[in-house]
C-alpha cells in the first residue's frame, strides 16, 4: 500500500533521527539495533523444529511469546522474566546467535517481512496480525513513551507516518500481505 508514497531510502547502513531514531540496513528501516546483530539475524539458518513468532510491531508478539514459552515448558512459568529474552529471543535486535543459543524447544521473535525472513521448510512460522487501527495507536504510544525511540510528534503526525510506511519495519499492509501470500 505505502510503496506508492514511500520516500527514497538509503541503500547503505545509515542512521536517521527524523521523525524518530532509525537505522537503515540495505535500505530497510529498523530501530536502533546494532547493524551486525540485524545482519546476523538475516543470515540465520533455521534448524528443523525452529518456531518463529512473526508480527508487525505492536501486534501481539510478546503475548504470543508468553503463551508459547508456557506451552513449551508444559505450563511451568519461568522463574524470572529476566531470562525471557534468552528463552525466546528477539532475533532482529539480538542477532542470529541468540536463536542458535536458545534452549529448545522455544520460539524466535521477529518482525521481519517475508522477503527478509530466514526461510526453511523444516521450520514453523506463526504470523500474528492485529487490527491496523489498534496497531497504529499502540505503536504511537510505544514510540512516544520510550525516550530512546525519539518520536516527539502528535498522533496525527504519527498516523501519517504509519500510513505511508515511513516507520520501523515499514508499511503495515505490505508486511501483512507478504505473509498472507505465503500462508
Could you characterize the architecture of this molecule?
- The chain is α/β, with parallel strands linked by helices.
- The protein has helices at 35-43, 61-72, 84-87, 91-94, 96-101, 132-145, 155-164, 172-180, and strands at residues 14-16, 22-25, 28-30, 51-55, 107-110, 124-128.
- Strands 1-2-3 form a 3-stranded antiparallel beta sheet, with helices on one face.
- Strand 1 (14-16) and strand 2 form a beta hairpin.
- Mean pLDDT is 90; it is low at 1-7.
- One of its GO terms (molecular function) is sulfotransferase activity.
- Belongs to the sulfotransferase 1 family.
Major sheet: 3 strands, antiparallel
The proportion of residues forming helix, as a percent range, comes to: 25-40%
Poorly predicted sequence stretches spanning 5 or more consecutive residues: 1-7
Q: Enumerate the strands of the largest sheet in spatial order, edge to edge or round the barrel.
A: 1-2-3
Q: What is the structural class? A: alpha/beta
Could you say which overall geometry the principal axes of the C-alpha atoms support?
globular
GO molecular function, one term: sulfotransferase activity
Family: Belongs to the sulfotransferase 1 family.
Protein name: Sulfotransferase 1C2
Organism: Nephila pilipes (Giant wood spider)
Amino acid at each position: 500500500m505505502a510503496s506508492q508514497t514511500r520516500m527514497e531510502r538509503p541503500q547503505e547502513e545509515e542512521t536517521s533521527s527524523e521523525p524518530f531514531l532509525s537505522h537503515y540496513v540495505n535500505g530497510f528501516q529498523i530501530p536502533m539495533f546494532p547493524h551486525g546483530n540485524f545482519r546476523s539475524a538475516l543470515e540465520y539458518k533455521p534448524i528443523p523444529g525452529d518456531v518463529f513468532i512473526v508480527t508487525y510491531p505492536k501486534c501481539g508478539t510478546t503475548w504470543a511469546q508468553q503463551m508459547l514459552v508456557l506451552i513449551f515448558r508444559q505450563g511451568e512459568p519461568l522463574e524470572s522474566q529476566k531470562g525471557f529474552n534468552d528463552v525466546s529471543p528477539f532475533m532482529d535486535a539480538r542477532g542470529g546467535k541468540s536463536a542458535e543459543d536458545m534452549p529448545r524447544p522455544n520460539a524466535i521473535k521477529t518482525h521481519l517481512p517475508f522477503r527478509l525472513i530466514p526461510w526453511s521448510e523444516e521450520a514453523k512460522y506463526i504470523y500474528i496480525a492485529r487490527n491496523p487501527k489498534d496497531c497504529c495507536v499502540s505503536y504511537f504510544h510505544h514510540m512516544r513513551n520510550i525516550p530512546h525511540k525519539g518520536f516527539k510528534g502528535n498522533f496525527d503526525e504519527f498516523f501519517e507516518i504509519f500510513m505511508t510506511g515511513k516507520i520501523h519495519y515499514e508499511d503495515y499492509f505490505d508486511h501483512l500481505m507478504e505473509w498472507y501470500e505465503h500462508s
